[in-house]
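Appendix C: a fully annotated inverse folding record. The material below is reproduced so that readers can follow the format used throughout the book. The structure is listed first as C-alpha cells, followed by the designed sequence.
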C-alpha cells in the first residue's frame, strides 16, 4: 500500500511513518509513505502557497495551483488510481468502518490543509472525500493524516502479529474493548479477576464480551444502537447490569 501525504511539513510525514507498527510495516515493505510539499510547486520568488481570503476575514487560504501541482505529482509518482482524502473538520467522522474501507485500497493521497483551509474549487475538482478525526480545530491536517496512516496500516495484511491482532480491538465489532490485566496477580491497586486465570477459554471469552457490552452501554450507548446484538449478547448485558445493581 502506498500513502502520499500532501503537506507543507513533509518532515512530519517522515516521522509519522518511522515508529512502531507503521515503522515496521514500512521496513518490511508492506507500506510506503511519501510527502509532497506544495511549496515545491509554488511559483515566484516567495513561492507563495497561501493568500488572503476573498470577502475578508482573518487568516489565509491555501492557493489552488501549488496544491493541484503537488497532487498531480503524487498521482504520477506511482501507477494505479489513488483515493484523494482531504482532512477537514467539515468531513465525515472517521470510524473504524471507514478505516477498514481505506485499508482495502492500494493507494491513498492524504491532503493536509493549513491556515483557514484550502480554496473550495480545489476540493471540488480534486478531492474524493473529506474526513474529520473529531469536532475540534487543529493547526494543520497533518496530525489527522497521521491518525489515518496508523489506523489503516495496522489493518493491512501482515502488519500486526498474532500478539497484536486487530481482530479483538475496540470497535472491530462496534463495541468498546474489555478491560485488560497482566502480572502481578496481587497488587495494592487490586487483584486480577479470577476468570482470567481459570484457563477456561469459553468463560474468559464470555466475561470479556460481557465487559465490552457493559462498558459500551455505560460509556457509549450510541454505539450499542448501531451494534447488531445477538440474543446471547443481550443476556450478557442484562447480567452485567444486574451485577451493578446487586
Ligand atoms: N478536526 C480535523 N479533522 O481533520 N482535520 C481537522 C482539522 O482540524 N484541520 C485543520 C482545520 C483548520 N485548518 C487547518 C487544518
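Designed amino acids, in order:
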Amino acid at each position: 500500500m502506498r500513502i502520499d501525504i500532501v503537506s507543507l511539513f513533509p518532515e512530519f510525514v517522515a516521522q509519522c511513518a518511522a515508529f512502531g507498527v507503521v515503522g515496521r510495516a514500512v521496513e518490511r515493505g508492506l507500506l510506503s509513505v511519501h510527502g509532497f510539499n506544495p511549496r515545491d510547486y509554488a511559483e515566484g520568488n516567495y513561492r507563495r502557497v497561501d493568500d488572503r481570503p476573498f470577502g475578508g476575514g482573518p487568516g489565509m487560504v491555501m492557493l489552488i495551483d501549488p496544491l493541484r501541482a503537488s497532487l498531480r505529482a503524487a498521482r504520477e509518482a506511482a501507477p494505479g488510481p489513488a483515493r484523494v482524502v482531504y482532512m477537514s473538520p467539515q468531513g465525515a467522522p472517521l470510524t473504524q468502518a471507514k478505516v477498514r474501507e481505506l485499508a482495502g485500497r492500494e493507494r491513498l493521497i492524504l491532503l493536509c490543509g493549513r491556515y483557514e483551509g484550502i480554496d473550495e474549487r480545489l476540493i471540488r475538482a480534486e478531492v474524493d472525500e473529506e474526513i474529520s478525526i473529531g469536532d475540534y480545530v487543529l493547526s494543520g491536517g497533518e496530525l489527522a493524516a497521521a491518525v489515518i496512516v496508523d489506523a489503516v496500516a495496522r489493518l493491512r495484511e501482515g502488519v500486526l502479529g498474532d500478539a497484536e491482532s486487530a481482530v479483538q480491538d475496540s470497535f472491530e465489532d462496534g463495541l468498546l474493548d474489555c478491560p485488560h490485566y497482566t502480572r502481578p496477580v496481587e497488587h495494592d491497586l487490586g487483584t486480577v479477576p479470577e476468570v482470567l486465570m481459570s484457563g477456561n477459554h469459553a468463560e474468559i471469552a464470555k466475561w470479556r464480551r460481557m465487559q465490552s457490552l457493559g462498558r459500551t452501554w455505560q460509556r457509549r450507548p450510541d454505539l450499542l444502537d448501531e451494534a447488531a446484538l445477538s440474543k446471547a449478547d443481550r443476556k450478557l448485558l442484562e447480567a452485567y447490569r444486574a451485577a451493578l445493581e446487586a
